[in-house]
Amino acid sequence: MVRHRSDIQGLRAVAVLLVALGHAGVPGLTGGYVGVDVFFVLSGFLITGLLLSEALETGRVSLVRFYVRRARRILPAAVLTLAVTTIAAQHLLNFVRARDVVTDSIWASFFAANVHFAALGSDYFQQGQPPSPIQHFWSLSVEEQFYLVWPSLLVLALFGVARGHARRGRLLLVIAAAGVASLAWSIHVTAATPSSAYFSTPARAWELALGAGLAVAAPALARLPAYAHVLLGWAGLTAVACAAALFSGSTSFPGYAALLPAVGAALVIVAGEHRLSVGRPLSVAPLRYVGDRSYAFYLWHWPVLVIAALYAGHDLSLATKLVLLAGAFGLSIVSYALVESPLRSRRWPTPVGGLAWPASAAAVLAVAFVVSGSLDGTAKRLEAAAASVKPPVLIDTAAAASLEEPPDAPLPPVVAAVRAAEDGAPIPSPLTPPVGNLRNDIYRFPNGCTPRTGQTRSRVCRLGDQSSSKVIAVIGDSHAQMWMPTLLDMAQRDSWVVIPFVKVSCIPRTWLDARGECRTWYRWATKRAGQLRPDVTLIVGSWAGTWAPTRAIRAISATTTTMRRSSRAVIVVDDPPGQRNDPTDCVLDPHSTMKTCSAPQTKVQQRTSAAIAANARRQRVGFLKTLGWFCALTRNGRKMLCPLVINQTITYVDRGHVSKTYALELAQPFRVGFRAQLFG
Question: Which residue, 220, 266, 352, 372, is most buried by CB atoms nearer than 10 A?
Answer without folding.
Answer: 266
